[in-house]
Amino acid sequence: MEAESAAAVATAALVMLELLEEPPAKKPRMSWVSPWLQRRKQQGAYENLMRELALEDSENYRRWIRMYTATFEELLGEVRPHITKKDTPFREAIQAGERLAIILRYLATGNSEMVLQFAFYVAHNTISGIISEVSQAIYRVLKPKVLKCHPEETHNDPDVTYEQCQDIYRRRTVMDTSHCLEVHIRIH
Description:
Order of helices and strands: HHHHHHHHHHH
Structural class: mainly alpha
Number of helices: 11
Low-confidence stretches: 171-178, 180-188
Mean pLDDT: 77
């Protein structure tokens, strides 16, 4: 009996030594970005399709983004300071032009973020944040130019405040960002 228990203890000690000598199994490294999303510069719609259409086919550019190249550049010039992100040591930021193109395509088609990620090679959760940030920037930039009170509705009353004017306008129509862009295009 004593020999059996001594053998069991010796076996247990050998197993323990074996376990202590083996390095722990490493977990496979997870990437922040899927490999196919890392090819945004080579295959994404902004870097390829939009640039080709702008250079070669302005009418199809207008059909795809719902505005002419000059209008896109003008709008980009106005919202760029509000939507530009800085590069970090870990990642390159999405350009302001690409951020604007994503929301314009979203407004033009009504496609979901999941569908847009395959065209622009940008993750759907990132697109969701871009839509929120850029739409707010567009609203802030275009609000003073587009959302103005109509004189016929206020009967040229100098006592009508901006908020009252906006209330009149809200009752008359529901305005979203795409309508603001259409009005912006017609103004210029």
